[in-house]
Amino acid sequence: METLDPKNRFLWKETPAATASCFSSEEWSDITEELQQWETNIRMNEVKLNGSSTFCDDADSVPAIRCTNTLQESIRSEVKKHKMSSVPRAYRDWDRFDVEKECAKIDECDTNPPAVITRPAPQDIKHSITSTALTDQEKDALACREKDKGNKSFRSGDYKEAVICYTRSLSLVPSAAAFNNRAQTHIRLQRWSAALSDCQMVLQLEPDNVKALLRRATVHKHLGHLQESHDDLRAVLLREPHNIEAQKVLMEITETAAESHQQKHRAGRNLFIQEFEDPEIMTNTHNTESPNRDGSENSVSPAPAPTTELTRPSEHLLLETRRRSPSGPRRSVPISEVEDEEGDEDQDCAVNQPFVSLQPSNAFEFGQVLNAACAHGDLLTCAELLRNIPSERLPQYISTQLHGQTFSFIIKTLNKYLRSQPQLLYEHMKHLQTAHRFSMVLMLLDAEDRTQLMEIFQSLSVVQTQAFSPDDVKSLANKYI
User: Fold this and answer.
1) What CATH number has the domain bearing residue 241?
2) Which of 54-58, 163-167, 171-175, 288-292 shows the lowest per-residue confidence on average (mean pLDDT)?
3) Are residues 361 and 260 in the same domain?
4) How far from chain centre, in Å, is Cα 409?
5) Paired sense of beta strands 270-273 and 335-338, if any
6) Which domain, by its residues, includes 445?
7) Which terminus, N or C, of the chain has the lesser number of Cβ atoms within 10 Å?
8) How far apart are CA 256 and CA 262, in angstroms?
9) 289-345, pLDDT tens digit by residue?
10) Where are the alpha helices (DSSP H) in 18-128?
């Protein structure tokens, strides 16, 4: 083991501490002399250091050494002065308390407030970044970094800086995410027009962006455009039926529209009353009540008719006035109703029209909703109506409403909004061709309607599902086209 591993711990041997008996007399005397000489040198050096001053001239200006005995003693004394005693004060200490002096100190602090430390204003950040010498990859990386800065500023509540960061990101690479985030920041700052323009840009890049639709609906709501807000919310709910925020905003818009409609109906009719004299009555009165002194009546020429008349009263009111004035002239007071502007009524009707039951229980309710949507061209309402009814009841509900215009409107709705649900679209098309008067209406379709039908069946033929096969789609298409 010694040859293989000389330093192995199993080879260690315990050696006792050396004592004077372990050394010879000469070795022990040498060790003792060296220790005595070292101790003498240390004492001499300490005496020299204590006798000499480290700072010759500036000894008074040098601060006290940290953690020296004198400094510690002064600190302890100050702490003892300010330390509150746990024992209650005696009444004699309260007699020594000078109230006026303490009040003077408080007044002095109020008149001389401490200086406020103000930081210098930050430099203005440029709203754009020059990207002439950057590659596409560098632009993307820099735009992503600026967008992340904007997200951090938005989370911290600094919305103005977030707008600047998003603008810098868009100056490099325009993206739907940056436009969308900047729109939300404008909404927090209540900049409605800027938020609306950013939402429009997002929808140009991504027409099915749910966040942009929801934010545009919020902007329209604050701008008072209830109909536009309602349309955007319906589009959101068609794509995400369980969107809680969209449902909440839609309920608020519905309540606002209902309140405005009730307030308008509570207001009575405005009556415009104008007082003027009837020239014919005044003329007859002068003819009958101005005789000469000799008993003969003067011939008085009738008064000229007025050239302009502000408000023409109704004949009934004039006749009643003449019948009830046998003794003398009376003034005619016409009363005319002042109707509200047609634009406001149309706007209220347009806002209140979509708020109908979209889950009909019979053909009458289905016909009411379908006719209202068709009259206003509201494809979203028709799409939600078709989503809420079973396919097998569609022929029964539509049998009394099926004509060329209604059928064309339904085909456009199915092609635009129900292509995302191919199984429901196929079931509706399958049961729709069994409706009454279907063959007659089919002959009245124009080229645009047939194009819509071709697009529907082309989208269904591409879908791979177990509900129907391409042969089923082909056979169904032959019944339409």
Assistant:
1) 1.25.40.10
2) 288-292
3) no
4) 34
5) antiparallel
6) 356-480
7) N
8) 10
9) 444 444 444 444 444 444 434 444 444 444 444 444 444 555 555 555 555 444 444
10) 25-51, 69-82, 91-95, 99-111
